[in-house]
Amino acid sequence: MGLPEEEASTLHHKYYSQYGLAIRGLVRHHQIDPLDFDRKCDGSLPLEELLKPDPALRKLLEDIDRSKVRVWALTNAYISHASRVLRILGVDDLIEDIVFCDYSNSNFSCKPETEFYENAMRKAGVQDPSKCYFIDDSRTNVEAAIRLGWSHCVHFCERGLIAMEGGKPKYIGTDIQEGDETSGITAVVNLDELRTVWAEIFRR
To answer: At what angle do helices 22-30 and 5-19 cross, to 10 degrees?
Structure first.
């Protein structure tokens, strides 16, 4: 688009805040090809240098009782990026399926849009939203799931890290101080806490 870096960052953050995903705004307002964007952005990331297998995450997923729940990944990334991340983390064989942003469709949906969650339920063959378990590192995405009646929602708010959110640096852990507990949203700072929060779905 030929924008100066600061202006591009501001636009990125604006669309991230407005749509939950920057590329959603770029496609809608600037006719950006989402597949080309994915190839040049997520597709070019040296993930093998940035990520590594996560034995603790693998153990957590292995301990979930699959006779009680099925484990799916819901992501605002495209399928190729999501699959690559799960493979590098060493948990791809423990995920039944992935609900992703279909960049091949210019009118794709993403979290926190209602259509994304409804599509996830259709794809998984779930009719009762109260049976859905959902964890996300975006409080906005968790709130959207709760509004749809997903009854087992958790905000993952890992502390002590710096992340990029909408093109802006963000200290992870601040969201949990902004009303999770008072609003009734369950928040965890370590994924292993799910063994307590969702004790009913873990093997004993």
So the answer is: 100
Number of structural domains, the chain? 1
Joined together, the tokens standing for residue 112 give: 């926190």
CATH code of residue 73: 3.40.50.1000
**Using one digit for the tens of pLDDT, what is the confidence trace for 48-70?**
999 999 999 999 999 999 999 99
- pTM value is 0.82
Residue range of the domain that includes 182 = 5-201
Joined together, the tokens standing for residue 13 give 């953050």
What is the per-residue pLDDT across 95-113, written as a single tens digit (0 to 9) for each? 999 999 999 988 899 999 9
